[in-house]
Amino acid sequence: MTAITMQIPTVLTAGSIEALPTEELGGQHGIEHRMLWHDGTSRAGVLTLAPGCSMPAHTHEASHHHMWVLDGDAELLGRRLGPGSYVHIPAGVEHDIATVDGCSVYYLYLVQPEAIRTD
What we know:
mainly beta; 1 helix; 5% helix; 46% strand
């Protein structure tokens, strides 16, 4: 018999998102995020970069990265993107993010099912 795990929906209002704690990401000054949801392997959040900040090139070997620019300008994969722009970065693809004037980006960090070890 297989155990069934109860899934609980997450609903956050704009006010409750604003009230979430911000955490500096990777110890980098001027880069912070709010965690909206996570399940232990995947997560969703809002990443905010202060004007002139950048995150160095890195790779997520087991996870797809989805990003949607909410406000400001974000430089991703060599392109300057404005509000409403979307980027999908497959697992294993090196990427960075930078901004001139500051930006906020909604992100999903989704582990590929085949990357989850069950042994």
